[in-house]
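Weekly structure sync, notes
Attendees: PL (lead), two postdocs, one rotation student
Agenda item 3: pending single-chain targets
PL asked that the sequence for the first pending target be pasted directly into the notes so everyone works from the same version. It is reproduced below exactly as submitted, 318 residues in total.
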Amino acid sequence: MNIVQRVAEQIINNVSNVIIGKRNEIRLTTLGLLCNGHILIEDVPGVGKTMMARALAKSIGCTFSRIQFTPDMLPTDVTGVSVYNQKTMEFEFRPGPIMAQIVLSDEINRATPKTQAALLEAMEEHQITVDGRTYRLGPPFLVLATQNPIEYEGTFPLPEAQLDRFLMRIELGYPSPQEEIAMLDSQQYEHPVNLIQQVVSVQELLAAQQAIRDVYLAPEIKQYIIDLVTATRRHPDVYLGASPRGALALYRTAQARAASVGHDYVQPDDIKALAEATLAHRIIVGPTARIRDISAQAIVRDILATVPVPGATIGARR
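Predicted structure, written out during the meeting:
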């Protein structure tokens, strides 16, 4: 078993003890972590978004920070602030909650655009700049952001530049009745997030992140990725298609998915399984399509159904 497969299975199994019945969503989040990318979880309250972030942090032994975004927050409430020390006669930097390895940005769309923008540098460059000084964010650094898709009063929609910085967008959804009964039983005496232990070290995670880059992509698979991304830009229902960053996200997550199941090369199924999560949130649906209630997810599914899939011998010529 390769290191990526072992690390992924250990994290997924551990988090599944807390988030019941959402193994596929946990796998997607784990792939985002293995790719060193950020995840946007868009769903209704109470389905386990915060618990997933906490369980993920405890599984790796990472430092965890939670930021509750509100309309009155300032950028310094996220990044930190320099405070004058009268004893030393100097300014001292007091780090904000962004200075952690796994950061839960809860209800990110409740903050004003100015405060949301405080995350941009951290998410893209893994550093923050305060009062002209730059502070590096230690690896691994993952932003898990949540937002409520049905409550719009007092919210500020994320700009396209910020949405594009999220590797994937995931929806958890409600559990089935049987899964909800299992959830009730598991929390009869104590919440399971308090019982899980660290199963992977930070060093093992960093080694897995590096090993992912060795996974082979045939030229046909690379062309398939580009064909899908190009199709989002030419689709008649799309106002603005996926960016080149979307192609990179699909490329890297496909490598992670292949390695997590023990393959050393990417197959078309890896691309198809991740296209919606990596591309849909980067698409701006056209006005007429919005009137017809056509979603970006539906557009990606339509593209997957129409773009030709490369042949099945792509791994044989390596």
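Discussion points:
- The mean pLDDT is 89.
- The chain has two domains: 3-208, 215-306.
Action: rotation student to compare against the earlier draft before next sync.
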